[in-house]
From TrEMBL:
Organism name: Jejubacter calystegiae
Secretion signal, residue range per the UniProt entry: none
Leading EC class: transferase
Gene this chain is encoded by: cmoB
Name of the protein: tRNA U34 carboxymethyltransferase
Family annotation (InterPro entries): CmoB, Mo5U34_MeTrfas-like, SAM-dependent_MTases_sf
Alphabetical list of NCBIfam families matching this protein: PRK15068.1, tRNA 5-methoxyuridine(34)/uridine 5-oxyacetic acid(34) synthase CmoB
EC number: 2.5.1.-
Alphabetical UniProt keywords: Transferase, tRNA processing
């Protein structure tokens, strides 16, 4: 079983300490009652990995671990086989001792778009909501964050994160907890909060923005990345049963509408930092994620539309401050 004790100890004497009033009981209930049917199989893959400590670790430009003495072909094959037991890999990529995990998303491209617009992460405590496999947590550490905490209820992602962490020398600067934002108490304790690719999955998007605000310190920074459509501050797309084959897409506002929502929730200095079309080079099927991907979700006759007839995915990045 995954041991969250080191994280509890790490936060016991800092601004996150009040979280310990609820978190251990939540994690305990999750371990007793809510484990996925394949969780033990995924955990077995994590346990089978060698506990390596990299001689060269690059989290600034990528998530890359190397050893001074290259692993044998047999060692690399063994690691790759175990990591493939954790497929599909959606967020990455990772390069671990010569094993390259080519994930569905080029999450490094998103990070390159986001990083220039952030306040300096040096020494900051950060929260990444809906963090997936935790790829961006490691990049946040590479950018200088003191502690990066991710939350995501998807248990496969937790096992992927723990697998990578084990191969990074059991690095304790980043942690992933199997929770949703609605399970977090009001902490007012994080210097920067990231919500990337989450807002459109929320049935009540303004409640989500309030939940994010409740985690920030005064003067803390929110980094919000989400699907958007073209239009003025009143433009919001409400898809039918599916959008780009996804079932749980509730609202896709314009970037100007998101800015208005943030201001309505009390954020200040709100700015639209970036807006870009998602390409089939950034999101695609790979040998590590073999099911359908973005190219399959677009209209084969018109790549500017989804197969349901909606505008193709476009994403905006907004930066805001909690006063």
């Amino acid at each position: 079983m995954i041991d969250f004790g080191p994280f509890y100890s790490q936060i016991a004497s800092g601004p996150l300490a009040p979280w310990l009033e609820t978190l251990p009981a939540q994690i305990g209930a999750w371990q007793r009652e809510s484990l996925h049917g394949q969780f033990s199989q995924w955990l077995k893959a994590v346990d089978g990995l060698p506990a390596l400590r990299p001689d060269r670790l690059d989290l600034l430009h990528s998530v890359t671990a190397r050893s001074a003495q290259p692993l044998s072909d047999g060692q690399k094959l063994g690691i790759e086989r175990l990591l493939r037991n954790l497929m599909p890999w959606r967020k990455g990529p990772f390069s671990l001792y010569g094993v390259d995990i080519d994930t569905e998303w080029r999450s490094d491209w998103k990070w390159q778009r986001v990083l220039p617009h952030l306040s300096d992460l040096s020494g900051r405590t950060v929260l990444d909501v809906g963090c997936g496999s935790g790829y961006h947590l490691w990049r946040m550490i590479g950018a200088g964050a003191h502690l990066a905490v991710g939350i995501d209820p998807t248990q496969l992602f937790l096992c992927q994160f723990e697998a990578v962490r084990k191969l990074l020398g059991n690095d304790q600067r980043a942690h992933l907890l199997p929770l949703g934002i609605e399970q977090m108490p009001t902490l007012n304790a994080f210097d920067t909060v990231f919500s990337m690719g989450v807002l459109y999955h929320r049935r009540s998007p303004l409640d989500h923005l309030w939940q994010l605000k409740n985690q920030l310190v005064s003067e803390g920074e929110l980094v919000l990345e989400t699907l958007v459509v073209e239009g003025d501050e009143n433009q919001v797309l409400v898809p039918g049963e599916r959008y780009a084959a996804m079932r749980n897409v509730w609202f896709i506002p314009s970037a100007r509408a998101v800015k208005l929502w943030l201001e309505k929730c009390g954020f200040v200095d709100v700015r639209i930092a970036d807006q870009s079309i998602t390409t089939t080079e950034e999101q695609r099927a790979t040998d590590w994620m073999r099911t359908e991907s973005l190219a399959d979700f677009l209209d084969p006759q018109d790549s500017t539309r989804t197969r349901e007839g909606y505008p193709a995915p476009m994403r905006a990045l907004l930066i805001a401050r909690k006063p």
